[in-house]
Design brief:
Strand content: under 5%
Order of helices and strands: HHH
Largest sheet: none
Oligomer: single chain
Distance between the termini: 54 Å
Number of strands: 0
Amino acid sequence: MTDWSALEECRRELDKIDAEIIRLFGERYNVRRRVKKIKHDQHLPVQDPARVKIVIDQVLSSARQHNVPLDFAEALYELVIDYSHKFEE
């Protein structure tokens, strides 16, 4: 017999986590708006490969600490960074 109440509880937890992730992405994009302005005002390039490497390395380190599959974390942040660059352009 399926324990629907346990499944529903897990789904409620996932919904809360998803809402928090989106809230944090909102905060990230607020910072990206500031970065965009600074880069524009100072005529800096949108992409900085050295910074991308630092971010990916930090994400992988954090993923290891929190038991997140490394390939998932890297793919996710490559997408996040790609969209951030598009946002700045």
